[in-house]
Amino acid sequence: MSYDFIIAGTGLSGSVFARIVAEKGYHVLMLERRNHIAGNAYDKKDKTGILIHKYGPHIFHTNNEEVFQFINRFSEWTPFKLKCEVEMCGKSTPSPFNFKTIDQFYEPEKADLIKHNLRDAYPEQVVVTVVELLKNENDLIREYAQMLFDNDYSLYTAKQWGISPSQIDISVLKRVPVRLDYESMYFTDKYECMPKLGYTEFVKNMLAHPNIEVKTETDALDFISLKETSLVFRDWDVNPNCHFVYTGPIDRLFNYKYGELPYRSLRFEYKTLLQDSFQNAPVVAYPQVKDFTRITEYKKLPIQEIPGKTTIAIEYPLQYQLKDDVEPYYPIPTENSSQIYQKYKSIASQYTNLILCGRLAEYKYYNMDQAIASVLNIAKKFI
What residue spans of 259-365 are helical by DSSP H? Predict the structure, then answer.
C-alpha cells in the first residue's frame, strides 16, 4: 500500500484525522511511539478489575453537536455528571466553588450578604471567573474572591504549573469558574458522558478501517527528514503528495531550533485500598498540600460495582525534562512560551506537506472536544 498520510501519534487528534481521511479513500499509516494506542486518553483495567486512566482522569463534555455526533459513531456513551471537591482550610467544599462554599466559610448573616451582593452584581449569570470577582467594585465580593484566590487558585496554580500565578496566561485562572448558585456539577455542557467500554476501545473502533494501518513502538521522527520546504519520508512507500500529520511537541519536530518549549508533566501514585470508598467525590483537589494536586478515585469514574476494593491515583505535577522518562502533558501558556511557539509555527508553515494538530503540536490547552473540533476543521479545509 502507498500511503497518502503518515500520522505521528494515535491520540485523539491523530486518530480523528486518520478516520476522516480514510473514509475519503486515502491510505493512512499511523506511527505510535508508545506501546499502546489512544495517547493520554488510554485506559485499562487494573488488577482489581477497576477501569483506570493511566495518564489522569478524562471526562468528555461538549456543547458542540458535530463533535458529539462524531464520537457516537465509534462508541456507546453513558451519561455521567462529574462532581468534584476541594479540601481547603480543613473543610471539603464543592468544586467549582458555589453558594455552599460561602455558607461553609462565613457566618450566616455575612454569608447571606455575600450571596445577595453576588446576585445583584451578576443577575444574568450562573458562573463567573475568579478574575472578574477580584476586579469587582464591591468590597465584600472582592473579599470573598481574595479568600478563594489565596486558599485555592493561587496555591493550586503555582503547584500545578510550577510558576507564579502572575506569570501564567490569565485563561488558566478562568478554566474553573465560581458558581452563583447551589449547583454542584463540575461542568455545565449540554453533553457530559463516558465511553461505556473505555477510551481505548473508542479509539480502537475509530481506527478500525481498511485504509488505516497502525504501528506501535515506532517513533515517526526516525523516518522523516526536513528538506527546505517539504518533509522527506524514509523506509515507507508513500505517494508523491504524501502529507505528514504531526501531533507531538512542535519543538521536538524541529530539533529545538529555537529552544525548548516548557511543558508540565505528571506522576501518578496508584494505590489499591481494601475499602468500598475513599473520598466523597471522584476527583478531590488539595491546593494546600505541599506535593500533590489532587486524588482521583477511579471506582467512581464512572461508578464501578466492585465491592470491598477501590483504586486511587495521587497526582504529582512535575517539570517536563527531555532526559526524564515522562510525558509532556500541558503546554505552559506564558508570554515567553507564546513567542517561542510563534517562531516554530512560522517555520512549520513553510513545509507544504506538514499538518500540525493537537495539544502539543498547536501548543494549546485543549479539552478533548476542543481537540476533536480543531481536527475536524483542519481535515475539512484540507479535503
Answer: 335-348
Q: What integer pLDDT is reported at residue 228 of this predicted model?
A: 85
Place of cell 476533536: 372
Flag whether 248 is in a domain: yes
**Residue 14 domain flag:** yes
What does the pLDDT average to over 75-87? 97
Cα–Cα nearest to 62, from 374, 322, 367? 367
Residue carrying C-alpha cell 497526582: 315
Work out whether strand 310-319 and strand 263-273 pair parallel, antiparallel, or are unpaired. Answer: antiparallel
Mean pLDDT of 201-219: 98
Which SS3 state, helix, strand or coil, does residue 117 take?
Answer: helix
Residues 101 and 226 in one domain: no
Give yes or no: residues 166 and 229 share one domain: no
Q: Hey, which bits of 230-334 come out as E strands? A: 230-233, 238-246, 263-273, 283-285, 294-297, 310-319, 330-331
Element (H, E) at 82: none
Reported as a single tens digit per residue, the pLDDT across 104-145 is 999 999 999 999 999 999 999 999 999 999 999 999 999 999
Q: Evaluate whether residue 155 is within a structural domain.
A: yes
Q: Which H or E run includes 18?
A: helix 12-22
**CATH code: domain of residue 28:** 3.40.50.720
pLDDT at 208 > cutoff 90? yes
How many contiguous H segments (helices) and E segments (strands) does the chain have?
A: 12, 21
Asked whether residue 61 is assigned to any structural domain, the reply reads: no
Distances (CA, A) of 200 to 109, 196, 287: 51, 11, 31
Grid cell listed for 272: 489499591
The residue range of the domain holding 295 is 263-319
